[in-house]
Amino acid sequence: xxxxxxxxxxxxxxxxxxxxxxxxxxxxxxxxxxxxxxxxxxxxxxxxxxxxxxxxxxxxxxxxxxxxxxxxxxxxxxxxxxxxxxxxxxxxxxxxxxxxxxxxxxxxxxxxxxxxxxxxxxxxxxxxxxxxxxxxxxxxxxxxxxxxxxxxxxxxxxxxxxxxxxxxxxxxxxxxxxxxxxxxxxxxxxxxxxxxxxxxxxxxxxxxxxxxxxxxxxxxxxxxxxxxxxxxxxxxxxxxxxxxxxxxxxxxxxxxxxxxxxxx
Length: 264
What we know:
The chain is an alpha+beta fold.
C-alpha cells in the first residue's frame, strides 16, 4: 500500500508539473489554479497521452466554455495552431440531453451509459462525425486526433482568436443571400456524401471565415438511418432560414430547401 501511495504521489507531481510547466509554459498562477479546478486526474492523463504523441505541445487559454466542454487554443508539436475540445467528466448535466442522439445510432449499439463512458463515447462520436464530414468535403475544422474525452482539431481563426460565428458576423458585417446558399449547400453535402444530419445547426455553431461557412459541434449529428434524422434535418433547415429571415435576408420557402436536400 505504501508503495502504491508513493507511485500515486509521484504521478500527481508529474501531472501538475506537466500542466504548469509544459502545457501552460509557466503562465500566471490564476490560470494554473483554474486548470487544477476544472480538470480531474483522468483528463490530465488523457492530455498527457496526447502530449506524448506530439499532438499537443501547449495550451493558450480557453476560447469557448460551456456546461459540458471547454475549448482551448493551443499548439501542436510543430507549433501549428490547434483547438483542443475537452469534455468535462464530472458534469451532471451531460446525460440528460445527449443520450437521445446516441440511442438509435447503429454505431453505438450496446454502449455503456454510465456518465464517464457516455462522455467518452460522445467525444468519439463527435470525432467520427467530424472526420466523415471532412472526408466528404464539408467545410468543417480538420480533425486531428481524439483520445477518450478530448478532441483535437484545426483552429479556425487567427492569432488564437476564433473566427466569428454567424451570430457574431451579423453584428459586425451583415449577412447575404449568397451566405445562406453556401450553408444550404453544406447541409446537402453532409447529407448526400457523409450520410449525416448535423441535428443542432444554428447561427451559434457556424463560423464564417475566409468567405466560407464552417460548420462545427458535431457531437449530436446522426446518421441518415437514425429514426429521428428527418426531424432533425427539418429543424436544422428551419433554424437557418429563420435566422437569415430575421436578419433581413430574403429566404427561399422551407419546402423547396428540404426538397433540394433530400432529392435535388
